[in-house]
Amino acid sequence: MDLVLNSPALYEASSHESFFVGWPTKPEYSIVKNHFAAAELIFAIADGEVVGLITALTDKVLFAFIPLLEVRSDFQNQGIGSALLSAMESHIGSIYGIDLVCDPELVSFYRSNGFIEVSGMVKRDRQAL
Fold first, then answer.
1. Residue 121's pLDDT is what?
2. What is the pLDDT of residues 29-42, one digit of tens each?
3. 0.70 exceeded by the pTM?
4. CATH of the domain at 97
5. In total, how many domains does the chain have?
6. What is the DSSP string of the chain?
């Protein structure tokens, strides 16, 4: 597996179908591509295909927010998500905080990667997707 930084052209419409499984509303391909343009981006590539991705929005001084960490279902439980998190942390560098929001079933995964639970609030507009 290779990790590739900030190369949004690697993500094609055919790749999009394999991601965002389990989301209540899957974001449109064009929305995801627009997000990539505004974010730090790392892809996991295996056999010439995108099998995982992570994005971060950051001020590069104090904070980063990780809105997306996706691994294709047929490549999960192989360490790809952890490798993507580690690569993004290295890319971002030493900053005060990295925040993310996850579903309850993913808490143990993020905890095993050094994250801690905190209280937080979110607002979602699924119609925006």
1. 87
2. 999 999 999 999 99
3. yes
4. 3.40.630.30
5. 1
6. -EEEES-GGG--HHHHTTS-TT-SSPPPHHHHHHHHHHSEEEEEEETTEEEEEEEEEE-SSSEEEEEEEEE-GGGTTSSHHHHHHHHHHHHH-S-SEEEE---GGGHHHHHHTT-----------GGG-
